[in-house]
Amino acid sequence: MINSHSAAVTRLPLELWVIIFLLYMEMCGKSKKWSELMLVCRAWRSALHSMPYLWCRINFDKPQWIRELYVQRARSRLLDVYIPNFPPPPGMTPFMTTDLVRNAQSLMMHVPRTLNPVPIDLQSLPTGFCLPHLETFSIVFPRQFGAIVGGDNAELYRSMPRLLGPIVMLGSNLRSLSLAMSLLHVPFEILVETVRMLPNIPALRDLEISGLDSGNYPGLSPKLLTPELEFLNIDNCEPEVVVFFLASLKMPKLNKLQLPSVGVMTTPNSRSTVPDMYPFNEIEELFVQLYAKKFGGSGCAKIIITENMQWVEIGPKSANSFPVLRFGFEIPEPGKFEVPTFPPTTWLAHTFSVVDQQLLFTQEVLRSLEIVSELSDLISFPRKGPHLDLRAQSAFDFDNVQGTEEFLLFFEHTPGLEFIKMERMNVTPFLQHLIEDVSLLPQLIHLHFEECILDKEVLHMLNMQRQSQVRILERIDLVRCNFGE
Fold first, then answer.
1. Tens-place pLDDT, residues 89-139
2. Please, what is the Cα angle at 193 between 104 and 114, to 5 degrees?
3. What is the 8-class DSSP label of residue 323?
4. Which position among 133, 346, 382, 422 has the lowest Cβ density within 10 Å, counted as fewest Cβ atoms?
5. For residues 183 and 208, is the Cβ–Cβ distance under 8 A?
6. What pLDDT score was predicted for residue 339?
7. What residues form DSSP beta bridges with 104?
């Protein structure tokens, strides 16, 4: 028990307590409750009572007295209402008129594995009724694995437009919509009925579609205008789904397109390929239109390397400009596919190859490149030495050679690069490539290395060589770097 009269920790400002409590809940997950923190001491209990924004999430899985207590402590704050067992008592239509929903800024509904839930009866609502504060609406469908109790999948599919339609009509300020379909194969006519509601949401800015299985989904013509849509996130869906939404929606203000991450496998006998992973033709057509119209061909590519993923972000050079394309490659765990374990350099080379071969517009627009590694160990830029050639027998040697070729092809195809940043890499081989081929990256004027390993003599040689070219290397940043091999 903390002595609240003498402990120095109790004299922290309220703002710091908010950060501490939120971090605690985030680290511990849903297993922890605010009530557990309130039992620590009187000072903590008083601090939690004075923070209404900590009590705004109303869960209908809890007893009514707990929900009422949360509402009381939230005071006049807008609420985040979560309904795990839909429909809530006493039914969906009466529920919509309660103060909980009228004061909700977000509403999430889980559709059960039962018969088609009864939709909202708009005729039974009071005249002029609306949801003025609702900004976020989410529908989560059950996983398809397992039988739907008391009905069939067709009834479950039909509940999607039946639930969404009334919300669209009542929520004039709806800005964010999420449809989590949990690996459902939705019939085309039902998907179309749902998507045709999107233009009726004038303030819609964020759209997330997840868990939609493949199907014969031809694009809609003419395209449906979503004038304010800025962020389209398609997660855990098949390529046909990506094609359908890109072909069906006209998104003049699109800021960011995030595609589902895909798993790829590289083996010594089967080089990295990308057949049908993404609808690259449709993606390229969309981004060429957006870039040509707004940004005049000045783009930036950023590759983020983590333990299990390599994320690619492609967007304008200006930090605050759009659009941004984001997608990722999942790196399989060692031994998962009974193939040898390859160094991160191999996966990085594969990522470069995908960008180079599949998104041809990047060859014209890229002016900036960033490679940021979040791995604990530094990774080495691929090098080609006398003991590594195309006749190499070992998988490691083969991948170093192939990685080098893929890297150099990317740089050869993007001669407009002016700025390159590398973080947590051994960059000496990269500098050697630039010295050996003076025609490589002729527009390069700025190098930025952070927490990298590099050879001082090689760096000096590159700098001297580039000073004699038409476009000189104007700046080299070295941040916490180590000079050595």
1. 667 778 788 788 888 899 988 876 654 556 677 778 888 888 889 999 998
2. 65
3. -
4. 133
5. no
6. 47
7. 79
Tell me which H or E stretch contains 453.
strand 453-454
Of 210, 218, 189, 422, which is closest to residue 301 (Cα–Cα)?
A: 422
pTM, rounded to two decimals = 0.76
CA max distance for the chain: 82
Of 300-314, 316-330, 463-477, minimum mean pLDDT range = 316-330
Q: Do the Cβ atoms of 358 and 239 come closer than 8 Å?
A: no
Q: Is the peptide bond before 88 cis (omega within 30 degrees of 0)?
A: no
Closest CA to 100 of 416, 264, 108: 108
| β partners of residue 98 | none
- In degrees, rounded to 5, the angle at the alpha carbon of residue 227 between the alpha carbons of residues 221 and 230 is 110
Structure tokens at 95: 């529920």
Q: How big is the chain by its Cα radius of gyration, in Å?
A: 27
Q: Are 73 and 55 in contact (CB under 8 A)?
A: yes
Residue type, 313: E
Cα separation of 14 and 400, whole Å?
A: 54
Q: In the beta sheet, which residues pair with residue 372?
A: 304, 423
* CA pair distance 218, 240, nearest whole angstrom: 9
Residues 6+ apart with CB under 8 A from 369: 300, 301, 302, 414, 417, 419, 420, 421
SS3 call for 106: strand
Closest to 124 measured CA to CA, from 163, 95, 87, 101: 95
Chain centroid offset of residue 417 CA: 26
Dihedral-angle region of residue 182 (phi above 0 means left; psi in -120 to 50 means alpha; beta otherwise): left
